[in-house]
């Protein structure tokens, strides 16, 4: 792989664990990225936010552990099968661009999930900068109920993998478990496309909002010895 210059960010509040600070290693923004190079970076624990590709590099903390689903080995558990069944009435539409309709759903999601404020931008320019990508991997997977947009998964496509960047949904439909459903849809689509993995970003022990990732078994995590199945 080409030599890549990395830049270390300044410290900022951690988005996963309270009362902690975080730093990230960013890929040189002048480095030319494409799906093949991005796939290699995913396999090394990086992920995308907007046009930037990064991985955590915090002082005295290594809680953020890269995680992925091995598509061929994954089998949904009972709860996940129920989730697929209850959402069988949804229609999937894949778009290549962000829309005002998606932004409206995103704002409702932030109000429902992060009413006390959070790390995510709330204005439209910030929404685009946060989720869109200028070098060509982002897709926006809309899930619709009788034509109404109720969930949207931002998905990066590489030759042999999908990466789950972000999902937002109607928080007034908790029985549908739309966040879980969005991941299951990505796994099913990756399997149909003959892909190897769905990357889930970081599993963070001790972070309640990241704990759901353990439910997708077998979950692979990146360790000093390479990718390993997460032990129970």
TrEMBL record:
Pfam family, one: ATE_N
EC number: 2.3.2.29
Ranges for domain N-end aminoacyl transferase N-terminal: 12-82
An annotated Gene Ontology molecular function: arginyl-tRNA--protein transferase activity
Subcellular location per the Swiss-Prot or TrEMBL entry: Cytoplasm
Keywords of this entry: Acyltransferase, Cytoplasm, Transferase
GO CC annotation terms, alphabetical: cytoplasm
One example of a Gene Ontology biological process annotation: ubiquitin-dependent protein catabolic process via the N-end rule pathway
Occurrences of domain N-end rule aminoacyl transferase C-terminal (ranges): 101-222
Main location (coarse class): cytoplasm
Keyword Isomerase appears in the UniProt entry: no
Catalytic activity: N-terminal L-glutamyl-[protein] + L-leucyl-tRNA(Leu) = N-terminal L-leucyl-L-glutamyl-[protein] + tRNA(Leu) + H(+); N-terminal L-aspartyl-[protein] + L-leucyl-tRNA(Leu) = N-terminal L-leucyl-L-aspartyl-[protein] + tRNA(Leu) + H(+)
Signal sequence region: none
Top-level EC class as recorded in UniProt: transferase
Organism superkingdom: Bacteria
Annotated Gene3D superfamilies: 3.40.630.30
Family designation: Belongs to the R-transferase family. Bpt subfamily.
Function of the molecule: Functions in the N-end rule pathway of protein degradation where it conjugates Leu from its aminoacyl-tRNA to the N-termini of proteins containing an N-terminal aspartate or glutamate.
Name listed for the protein in its UniProt record: Aspartate/glutamate leucyltransferase
Encoding gene (name): bpt
């Amino acid at each position: 792989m080409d030599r890549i210059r990395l830049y270390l960010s300044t410290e900022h509040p951690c988005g996963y664990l309270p009362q902690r600070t975080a730093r990230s290693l960013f890929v040189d923004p002048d480095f030319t990225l494409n799906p093949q190079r991005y796939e290699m970076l995913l396999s090394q624990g990086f992920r995308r936010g907007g046009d930037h590709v990064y991985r955590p590099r915090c002082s005295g903390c290594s809680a953020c552990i890269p995680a992925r689903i091995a598509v061929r080995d994954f089998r949904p558990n009972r709860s996940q099968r129920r989730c697929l069944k209850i959402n069988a009435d949804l229609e999937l539409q894949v778009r290549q661009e962000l829309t005002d309709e998606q932004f409206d759903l995103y704002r409702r999601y932030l109000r429902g999930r992060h009413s006390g404020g959070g790390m995510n931008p709330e204005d439209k320019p910030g929404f685009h900068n946060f989720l869109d990508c200028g070098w060509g991997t982002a897709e926006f997977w809309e899930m619709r109920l009788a034509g109404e947009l109720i969930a949207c998964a931002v998905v990066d496509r590489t030759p042999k993998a999908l990466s789950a960047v972000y999902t937002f949904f109607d928080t007034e439909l908790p029985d549908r478990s739309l966040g879980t459903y969005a991941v299951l849809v990505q796994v099913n689509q990756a399997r149909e496309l003959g892909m190897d993995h769905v990357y889930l970003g970081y599993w963070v022990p001790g972070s309640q909002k990241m704990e759901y990732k353990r439910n997708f078994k077998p979950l692979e995590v990146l360790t000093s010895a390479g990718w390993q199945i997460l032990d129970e």
